[in-house]
Amino acid sequence: MRILVLGGDGYLGWPTALHLSDCGHDVAVADNFARRAYDHEMGVRSLVPAEPLQVRVDAWQEVSGQDIKMYYGDLVDADFTVEMIRDFRPDTIVHFAEQRAAPYSMIDRKHAVYTQQNNVVGNLNVLFAIQEIDPEIHLVKLGTMGEYGTPNIDIEEGWLEVTHKGRTDRMLYPKKPGSFYHLSKVHDSHNIEFACRIWGLRATDLNQGVVYGQETPQTVRDPRLATRFDYDAIFGTVLNRFVIQAVLGHPLTVYGTGSQTRGVIDIRDTVECIRLAAESPADKGEFRVFNQMTESFSVEEIAKTVANNYDGSVEVEYLDNPRVEQDQHYYNVVHTGLVELGLDPHLLSNTLINSLFGVAEQFKDRVDLAAMRPTVEWRTASSPMR
Questions:
Q1: Which candidate in 16, 92, 115, 144 is catalytic?
Q2: I want to staple 5 with a disulfide (CB 3.0 to 4.6 A). Which of 17, 108, 170, 370 is the partner?
Q3: What does 120-138 look like in DSSP terms, one character per residue?
Q4: Is 129 within 8 Å of 81 (Cβ atoms)?
Q5: How far is residue 158 from each of residues 35, 49, 138, 190, 324, measured CA to CA in Å?
Q6: β-pairing verdict for 202-208 and 138-144
């Protein structure tokens, strides 16, 4: 199968491309390297050094004998998007190529507008390109569990059957996103569903939980193949931050009471979910939704798990929550679709956490302590940064 990975230089896009290539697919990656530019803008960097994409591609060819084709360009450029898809003629497009940090989208008006324009317009250009070139192309789009928010009912996989005044219909699950970034993902989902319904496209929307981990069976084959490890308050994930704080002997910083619940997934399961979705495509005209997570924990539970598994004294510090979200809430997510396709989940375990401790220990000299403190306040609508 020919698979084009958009955002193939990123934290998840790169290991996904390697996993698909290792499974025998003909893979190409596309990127505009905006993610690397965000690091320069915010004055942060990945804990683990990430080689330039060309170096990574060359290294993969050396260790595997497999070629990965590269495209450089921006999905907001409709002409580039059409030309790239027409040139590669993929069977499946995996779409990671969006600004993916909620705090970044909440910095100020400029960053909110950029996030929505970049994400929504880029996704629309992909949809129009598929419709023009080959409507049989299967779009696998990375969404987020954050689209749903924290409703007081079970979270179904994308769709909900509703009975109102004696009549029943199936409709998209109501969304209550918590940031301008999450709102952009909701807009994407609605646009994709519309394209499937009107143009007969086929798409799988993967509403993904918080990803943890840094290594896959492919990335460990050569240091040049390593993917990112983000820990800062803008782009980092909470588990990564806790692991680094433990290794450095700093308190684990929990926002609010820590009762907020998150769906989580191992990076190895993320790349496998993409393979399963690609190899079992949605039907023509189908907008298929999977909740891509394997477990759920409160933030406090994650902190205590890290503390209990670290060989040393670890304290927990509770900070004022810079986000606007419920501390106490119901959270029960249906996530059976990918398991039915064959996913055998890795669960959060001592082994995984210990492996992350090793990564953090190896690169702890690269940690910027100030970068881990929250600086973006949801309640403040500020003017653009200067």
A1: 144
A2: 17
A3: IIHHHHHHHHHHHH-TTPE
A4: yes
A5: 28, 36, 18, 11, 24
A6: parallel
Whole-number Å distance between alpha carbons of 4 and 23: 14
pLDDT at 125: 99
How many other C-beta atoms are found inside a 10 Å radius of the C-beta of residue 77?
15
pLDDT at 354: 82
User: CA 262 → CA 52, 208, 333, 336, distances in Å?
Assistant: 32, 11, 10, 17
What confidence tens digit (pLDDT) does each residue in 164-199 have?
A: 999 999 999 999 999 999 999 999 999 999 999 999
* 194-225 core/surface letters (b: 16 or more CB in 10 A; e: else): ebbeeeebbbbbbbbbbbbbbbbebbebeebb
Active site residue 144: yes
Amino acid code (one letter) for 355: S
Cα dist. 30→13, 69, 149 in Å? 9, 9, 30
Rounded-to-integer distance, Cα 136 and Cα 181, Å: 29
What's this model's pTM, rounded to 2 decimal places? Answer: 0.97
Residues of the chain with pLDDT under 50: 383-386
- Rounded Cα distance between 216 and 109, Å, is 37
Strands (E), 44-95: 68-72, 92-95
Catalytic residue of the set 181, 231, 310, 331: 181
Please give the distance of CA 270 from its chain centroid, rounded to a whole number. Answer: 9
The catalytic residue among 185, 212, 231, 270 is 185
**How many Cβ atoms from other residues are within 10 Å of residue 324's Cβ?**
11
Asked whether 8 and 69 are in contact (CB, 8 A), the reply is no
What does DSSP assign to residue 218?
A: T
Output the six-digit token pair for 380: 């403040």
Q: What is the dihedral of CA 184, 185, 187, 191, to 10 degrees?
A: 140
